[in-house]
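Protein in question kept in full:
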Amino acid sequence: MSECLTTKQLKTVLNLIWKDRSKWFTIGIQLNLEESELRAIRTNCHNVEDSFTEMISLWLHQVDPKPTWTALVDALDSPPVDSKGTAKAIKEQYILKEPHSDSEKDDHDLSEGVNELTPIEPPRKVACELEKLDRWFSKLA
């Protein structure tokens, strides 16, 4: 099972898929974000980079379904996005935890266009639960 991501991984996720930023709307659809929310981002942001960053931030704040590495890999691997190299690199680094035996690349050379991979901060499951509680309490305020 893939670990839940939080807003603390914003920089990591942005760095991992930065080369696909021009596909931000399509990636957002593949990540199950509401089309109306994506249209609002398109209207309010002045460039692709800001739109991409806002879309990833929105996804990381999502409660149902929770953002996971698997969901990100599936979105990148989908036919409309078609970023299989980056999807494979993320899967190997964050889901499988070990590169395949036929891939002896180090963490900094997993995929063309991925500059640097930041390790996940432990313990992710606790951080995910704390994030949910924080969102719940902020709604009460």
Residues 7-140 form one domain.
